[in-house]
Design a protein that fits this description.
about 40% helix, 2 domains, alpha+beta, BirA Bifunctional Protein, domain 2, about 20% strand, 8-stranded mixed beta sheet, 5-stranded mixed beta sheet, Rossmann fold, binds histidyl-adenosine monophosphate, elongated
Length: about 450
C-alpha cells in the first residue's frame, strides 16, 4: 500500500505556478534593502536553544509554548529558529562584523518555526524578510527602518496598512512600570491563565500580549507604559516622531503595542493590514539596545524589523495587487519524426547559448498535442519542423499571440531571423523592454 503522507499542519507548499508571487515580493524587498545600504546575511536554520531563551525571553509565548526543540546526542539541545534576530546577532558577534565600522546593516530572507495554533495568516513554518541595523542610538535610525518598510509597502502597491508606534522605555523606566502592572493585575490573579499567574512574578509586561481572550479583557485597562517613560526615552520617542513627520510618514501612537519578544527597548512598531483578518500584523520591529551585550558582544545599540511574507502575500492577493509575471518560453520547437526531433535538439542548444528560453518535445507527443502544450506553457513563438522543412531548410515561425507566420531559416540564418522577429514583438508588447531600448537612444520615435 502506498504511503499516504500529507503536508504537516501549519505549513505551506509554494507550487510552481504561484512562485512568481514570492519572487515579486523577494525582489522588491531585496532591491529596497540594498538601496538603504543593507547587505544580506545567511544564518543556520537551527541554533542552540539557549540563544532563544536568553534573547527572546523565557517568559514569552515563543519560548514557553512555541519552540521546536530537539536534542542531539550529548546534552545540548537545538531549536529551529522561531525568528531571525537572535541568530543574526549571534552571527554578527561571532564573525566580528561589529568591528567593520558602524552602523552595520544586514537583511535576511528566511523560514521561521513556531508551534502555534494554525489559522489564516498564522503558520508553524512561515517566512520573514528582516533587517537589522547595529550601532546607531539615534532616533533617526528608528525612522530610517520605518521608512524602509514604508517604501516596500508602497512599491508592492499595498493599501490600508496602518503604522502603530509605541515606546516601551528602557530598563529604568520599565522597573517602575513593572510595579504598576503588578499592582494592577494582582487583584485579578485568580482569573489569569496559569502561564500569566507565573508571569505576574517574573515579567508582568508579558501579560499584555497573552493570547487568552480572558487575559486580554483584564489587560484592557492596565496602566500604559507611555505614562512611565523617563526623560531620555521620551526625548527619543519625540525625536522619532519628528523624523517621521519630516519624511511624511503617517502613524498612530498605540500605547498597547508591547510586542511579544523580550529584547525590545524604547521604540516598538507594527504595520497592520485591515484586509486579512485577525492576523493582520504584516511587519513588526523595534529597538533592542541591550541584546548585543546580553549575547556577549560589546554594548551596541541596535534595532530592526521583520515582515511575515505569507501575510504580505495574503494582503497583496486580497487587494488584487499585481505581481511580476514569470518569463515564459520564447520558442517552442514542435517536430514530426526522428530527424526533425534531432534538429529541434540542435536548434535548441544553439539558441539557448544565445540566451533564449527554448523548449521542445521530451515525451514523444504528436504534433497536435505539442501545439497544445506550447499554448499551455505560453510559448511566444512556435516553429514546426517536419520532413519538408528539413528538406527546404526553412520553416514557418508562428507568433502565438497574433497568429502571424513568417519564414525562418533553420540553417545559419536562424538566429538573425528569430532575433529580428523577437525584437519587433518585444518592442510592441513589453513596456519595460521598450524603455530599456529607448534608454540607449535606440528605437526613438517609434
Ligand atoms: P514578530 O512580530 O514575532 O517579530 O514577527 C515578525 C512578523 O512575522 C510578524 O509581524 C508577522 O508578520 C510574521 N509572523 C510571526 N509569526 C507568524 C506566524 N506564526 N505565521 C505567519 N507569520 C508570522 C520578530 O520576529 C522580530 N524578530 C522582528 C524584529 C527584527 N525585531 C527587531 N528586529
Amino acid at each position: 500500500m502506498a504511503l499516504n503522507v500529507k503536508r504537516p499542519n501549519g505549513t505551506q507548499d509554494v507550487v510552481p505556478n504561484e512562485a512568481y508571487k514570492w519572487h515579486t515580493v523577494e525582489s522588491v524587498v531585496r532591491d529596497s534593502a540594498a538601496q538603504f545600504g543593507f547587505k544580506e546575511i545567511r544564518i543556520p536554520t537551527f541554533e542552540e536553544t539557549g540563544l532563544f531563551v536568553r534573547s527572546v525571553g523565557d517568559t514569552t509565548d515563543v519560548v514557553q509554548k512555541e519552540m521546536y526543540t530537539v536534542s542531539s546526542s550529548g546534552d545540548k539541545t537545538y531549536t529551529l529558529r522561531p525568528e531571525g534576530t537572535a541568530g543574526t546577532i549571534r552571527a554578527v558577534i561571532e564573525n566580528g562584523i561589529l568591528n567593520e565600522g558602524l552602523p552595520q546593516k544586514v537583511f535576511y530572507l528566511l523560514s521561521c518555526f513556531r508551534h502555534e495554533k494554525a489559522q489564516k495568516g498564522r503558520l508553524r513554518e512561515f517566512h520573514q524578510f528582516g533587517c537589522e541595523m547595529l550601532g546607531s542610538a539615534s532616533p533617526a535610525a528608528d525612522a530610517e527602518m520605518i521608512a524602509l518598510v514604508h517604501i516596500i509597502m508602497q512599491r508592492l502597491g499595498l493599501r490600508n496598512i496602518e503604522l502603530n508606534l509605541n515606546s516601551i522605555g528602557c530598563p529604568e523606566c520599565r522597573a517602575k512600570y513593572r510595579e504598576a502592572l503588578k499592582a494592577y493585575f494582582e487583584p485579578h490573579r485568580a482569573e489569569l491563565c496559569p502561564t500569566c499567574q507565573e508571569r505576574l512574578e517574573k515579567n508582568p509586561l508579558r501579560l499584555l500580549d497573552c493570547k487568552s481572550a480572558e487575559d486580554q479583557a483584564i489587560a484592557k485597562d492596565a496602566p500604559l507604559i507611555t505614562d512611565y517613560l523617563c526623560e531620555e526615552c521620551s526625548a527619543h520617542f519625540e525625536g522619532l516622531k519628528k523624523n517621521l513627520a519630516i519624511m511624511g510618514i503617517e502613524y498612530t501612537v498605540n500605547p498597547r503595542i508591547v510586542r511579544g519578544l523580550d529584547y525590545y527597548t524604547r521604540t516598538v512598531f507594527e504595520f497592520i493590514s485591515s484586509d486579512i483578518g485577525s492576523q493582520g500584523t504584516v511587519c513588526g520591529g523595534g529597538r533592542y539596545d541591550g541584546l548585543i551585550e546580553t549575547l556577549g558582544g560589546k554594548p551596541t545599540p541596535a534595532l530592526g524589523f521583520a515582515m511575515g511574507l505569507e501575510r504580505i502575500l495574503l494582503t497583496l492577493e486580497s487587494q488584487g495587487c499585481e505581481f511580476i509575471e514569470e518569463k515564459t518560453c520564447d520558442l517552442y520547437l514542435a517536430s514530426m519524426g526522428d530527424k526533425a526531433a534531432e534538429k529541434a535538439v540542435e536548434i535548441a542548444s544553439r539558441m539557448r547559448e544565445e540566451g533564449f528560453f527554448v523548449e521542445y518535445d521530451l515525451v514523444g507527443r504528436g504534433l497536435k498535442a505539442q501545439m497544445k502544450y506550447a499554448d499551455k506553457i505560453k510559448a511566444k513563438y512556435v516553429v514546426v519542423i517536419g520532413d519538408s522543412e528539413l528538406e527546404s531548410g526553412t520553416a514557418k515561425l508562428k507568433n502565438m499571440a497574433s497568429g502571424e507566420q513568417t519564414d525562418i531559416s533553420l540553417g545559419d540564418g536562424l538566429l538573425d531571423d528569430f532575433g529580428a522577429q523577437y525584437y519587433e514583438m518585444m518592442l510592441s508588447t513589453d513596456e519595460e523592454f521598450r524603455s530599456f531600448v529607448e534608454s540607449f537612444g535606440d528605437g526613438q520615435g517609434e
